[in-house]
């Protein structure tokens, strides 16, 4: 887990601790109705780093389907905040409710306690 301050540039702008986990997910691009597969590399309450073969531009709106329990999937509106040439996408979550934040925090805490 790495906690970063709100000040400074680049990756140091992160406000929430990141947890390294590996988790297969799907996401869609509402503008095109395309569905993609990806793997979560790390996650926080503010976003997620996805590894995928998709070719998308920064600023693309997506809908992430995050399996948080055996029978529960969260549908999270997000935006592609950062992309690299090697298939890493920094995804920022948008407008999570307090209940969704609580469920996401429980999921992250449980995964971190279980070792990813």
How would you portray this structure in words?
- With 116 residues, the chain is mainly beta.
- The chain has one domain: predicted glycosyltransferase like domains (Thrombin, subunit H), CATH 2.40.10.
- Helices cover 14% and strands 46% of the residues.
- It contains one helix and six strands; from the N terminus they run ββββββα.
- The protein has a six-stranded antiparallel β-barrel.
- The longest helix has 16 residues, at 98-113.
- The chain starts with 18 loop residues before the first strand and ends with a helix.
- Mean pLDDT is 85; it is low at 1-14.
Give a quick set of tags describing it.
single chain, 116 residues, mainly beta, Thrombin, subunit H, 6-stranded antiparallel β-barrel, 1 helix, 14% helix, disordered N terminus
